[in-house]
Amino acid sequence: MARTTGSDGEKTEAAVREAAVSLIARFGYEATSMRQLAAEVGVQAAALYRYFPTKGDLLFTLMREHMEGLIEAWDAARPDAADPATRLAAYVENHIAFHIERRHSTHVSNMELRSLSHDRLTQILRMRTAYEKELRAILRDGAEAGAFSVDDTGLTAMALIQMMTGVIVWFRPGERLSMAEVTATYLSMTMRLVGANIDGKTYSAARPFGRAKDAVAF
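User: That's the sequence. What structure does it adopt?
Assistant: Structure tokens below.
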């Protein structure tokens, strides 16, 4: 009989993925065993291999699904025919919301790249590059239109993504700042970094060391 949506098998597979993300985020990929994972889910270890033939298959699935989800979320959030500043704001808001809501998955996806085989690492990096190209395109469009002051779009994109993704390290729901407050602060920092002009307000662009005559020496 064909498996139907919501069947026990699909529920078990989803539970395995969820438990794997939690365990790997806590203990690391190498220290997490399939036996430990099976105990967490409440199934026999042999049952896991119906869904994931190897632990490496499981890790790759988790990381691929994380990137697929991120790309799909941006596809849904991307403004149509918007100016660069509006697109950049949407990118920042989507990136931060996605990663805060998937803190453990983000941790696994960033920290366990080293545990992938070469071929699988290449696939994940290709997906990351496709996602980052979206940000570089926004920065390039903004620079060409005079809306942003950006000397190096590639370097700026990498810096922004590292800054935004890093929010998972310290942010916890219910503490001093809400997700909305964090997003607003990061959005303001982003606009300063790119020297954006929004609603007549020009943010001071961050300039490379040594370029400005009044650069502060430390």
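Residues 1-6, 205-218 have pLDDT under 50 and may be disordered.
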